Structure formats: structure tokens, C-alpha cells
Amino acid sequence: MELPPCPECGSAFTYELDALLVCPECGHEWSATTSQDDVIRDSVGNPLAHGDTVTVIKDLKLGGTSSTVKVGTKVRNIRLVAGDHDIDCKIPGVGQIGLKSQFVKKVTK
Hints:
The chain is an all-beta fold and 109 residues long. 0% of the residues lie in helices and 30% in strands. It is built from no helices and eleven strands. The chain has strands at 15-17, 20-22, 29-31, 54-56, 60-61, 68-69, 74-75, 79-80, 87-91, 95-99, 104-106. Strands 1-2-3 form a three-stranded antiparallel beta sheet, with no helix packed on it. A three-stranded antiparallel beta sheet has the order 7-4-11, with no helix packed on it. It has a three-stranded antiparallel beta sheet with strand order 8-9-10, with no helix packed on it. A hairpin with a 6-residue loop joins strand 8 and strand 9. The model has no long low-confidence stretch (mean pLDDT 87). This is Phosphonoacetate hydrolase. It comes from Lutimaribacter saemankumensis.
């Protein structure tokens, strides 16, 4: 079984220690029982992370207002949170809102 790289530094030299995975280079420890369900994915299945840039894939009406977030709107520096709306972000001209990951696509470099 091949162990995943360290999520902190990317080192491939991880090892198991009881129920944890450990990185010998940076000392980071994390749970070996992380399931695929814990990963938040965009509309096409790309895993999302804090600080990513995403693009909105459909017009989204904002509840309580007559405003909409247009398709193609680029959102920088997202924050992943638990809950129904799993992305917290700030959209220029709109402000702080929560988005669902099913309505965004990760911008790749």
C-alpha cells in the first residue's frame, strides 16, 4: 500500500505510526483514516483547498436581494467550511457570501 504525501510539505517519505501518518521532514502528523468523503470537490470533481481560485459556472441569485452572481465570475482566496454552503468567499461588488461547491470550477494554473 502506497502512503499519501504529506499535506503540509508534500514529502513522499511519510510513514505510519499507530493510527497516524507522520512526515519525517516537517514533523506533521495526520489521521490515516481520512475518507474521500471529507474532500470538498468542485463541479467537475477537482479537490478544493483553502486559498484556491474558482469560477462560478452558472448565474446565482442571491437570497434576499435582486442581485445575481454572473457565470464566469472569478472568486479568489476561498475558505472551505463545514455545512450546506461549503465555501466562504468575498466577491467584489457583492461582499461576503457562502457558495456551494457544485456551482464552481477550480481555476488551474
